[in-house]
Specification:
The complex is a heterodimer of chains A (251) and B (163). Chain A has ten helices and seven strands. By secondary structure, chain A is α+β, with helices and mostly antiparallel strands. Chain A starts with a helix and ends with a helix. Chain B is mainly α. In chain B, helix 1 packs across helix 3 and helix 5 runs antiparallel to helix 6. The chains are: A alpha+beta (251), B mainly alpha (163).
């Protein structure tokens, strides 16, 4: 029995009905040449799909997200006005159903222009404010920053708060971590609970001139996002989870 | 802004990564692909009334992209323009990190295919659509889709040295 290429292709693509599928499966058992032709169809499919798959994971340019939200949506700044590019504004808290968790996927879509990637920001913090100290070889939050990490809820914070909390989540070692932006320190980062301290797992300088620290609370730079993803176990805390964890002193 | 259009907006935002991938299958560089996506999204909003209740937003927008891409090719042809190649080092929008060798060679090979074969390959092999879904998007009979797909595959395999 001979099969034409279209039939073998359809078989490789899973497009044949059950009877034809069974027939060809049996024929392949008997005929290595036939098996080879089917394998080539599958290999080509894998190669082509694999080559293009990386596009899915790339961050989506802001101009496309703005266009996707439609002509009536509140127009974000034109991309020309934000030459740093690739800024993706996180949807405001208000656009979520009450208590809906911030999904990791949403954060993953983000890249921030406000953040000067790669700069370690802690010395900015240490220099300009009393936000950071060193304890047992680790940098820990203190002062206003520690206070905000202890008490402030992302679901209930002033827009002009000096420290803005981003997302809170449970890390793989079971401790709580919270991302933050500190206006006074011009820094953003990630702090994780260690005993009664907040250890700074990651910090970086942000540029307060680039649009204000307030927006930065809802954006994660790629490097901060990486730090979050490396630690996060499961989902981010929703408003209730955040409140419960705070009331238990993040233990 | 009504919540209904907000919801459509969010659904379109969710489709953006797939729209970009489909566009990237059709264009050899990401800059052109993103321009295509933008024009598709704008067309979709202008023609939202044509989206039938219960119809798939995904398929509908892929259909718009097919039309937009073909229109764009015709217009470029009339102006005698040639699309920038994928490896154009001086193109500001070409990101060196996505220059993986596979993407480059597959893009090159796809670019040599006739339009209708490239569309069939993009929808079935890259987007993972069934033959039925793909033929609906392209508005062609299944048999036509199947033969375009088979011819496109043979040409791709030859170009990629897998004959």
């Amino acid at each position: 029995m001979t099969y034409d290429e279209e039939t073998l292709m359809a078989y490789a693509d899973g497009e044949l009905d059950a009877a034809s599928r069974a027939e060809i499966a049996a024929a392949i058992e008997q005929d290595p040449e036939l098996a080879g032709r089917v394998a080539k169809h599958r290999a080509l499919r894998t190669e082509v799909a694999g080559a293009l798959s990386s596009v899915i994971d790339q961050s989506v340019p802001e101009r496309l997200r703005a266009a996707a939200r439609g002509p009536l949506s509140a127009a974000p700044p034109a991309p020309e006005a934000r030459p740093r590019g690739n800024v993706v504004q996180f949807p405001s808290r208000g656009s979520h159903a009450p208590g809906a968790p911030w999904r990791a996927r949403e954060w993953t879509a983000m890249a921030a222009s406000l953040v000067l990637g790669g700069l370690i920001g802690w010395h900015f913090m240490a220099r300009s404010t009393g936000d950071v100290t060193s304890r047992g070889g680790a940098l820990v939050a203190r002062g206003e920053l520690a206070e905000a990490l202890d008490k402030q809820l992302a679901s209930d914070q002033a827009n002009d708060a000096s420290v803005r909390i981003g997302l809170s989540f449970k890390s793989k070692d079971g401790s709580y971590c919270r991302s933050f932006v500190s206006r006074a320190s011009s820094a953003a980062g990630l702090a994780c609970r260690k005993d009664s301290d907040w250890q700074l797992a990651f910090t970086e300088a942000i540029d307060p001139e680039a649009g204000g620290v307030r927006q930065a609370a809802s954006e994660l730079s790629p490097s901060l996002l990486k730090a979050v993803e490396a630690r996060m176990a499961g989902d981010t805390l929703d408003a209730n989870g955040e409140r419960t964890a705070r009331d238990a002193a993040w233990q | 802004m009504t919540s209904a259009s907000e919801e459509i907006g969010e659904r379109i935002v969710e489709l953006l990564p797939r729209l970009r991938r489909f566009a990237r299958s059709l264009s050899r560089n990401q800059h052109d692909a993103d321009d295509l996506v933008q024009s598709v999204v704008e067309r979709a909003w202008r023609n939202l009334a044509q989206l039938k209740p219960g119809a798939s937003l995904h398929s509908w927008m892929f259909g718009i992209m097919k039309n937009a891409w073909i229109d764009d090719r015709r217009a470029r042809g009339r102006r005698g323009e040639v699309a920038l190649p994928d490896d154009s080092g001086d193109h500001p929008a070409v990101n060196p990190t996505d220059m993986n060798a596979n993407l480059w060679s597959v893009s090159e090979a796809m670019d040599k295919l006739p339009e209708e074969q490239r569309l069939a390959i993009a929808l079935v092999l890259v987007e993972g659509m069934s033959y039925k879904e793909a033929s609906d998007v392209l508005e062609i009979p299944m048999g036509t889709l199947t033969s375009r797909l088979a011819r496109g595959r043979a040409a791709l395999a030859a170009a990629l040295g897998e004959t």
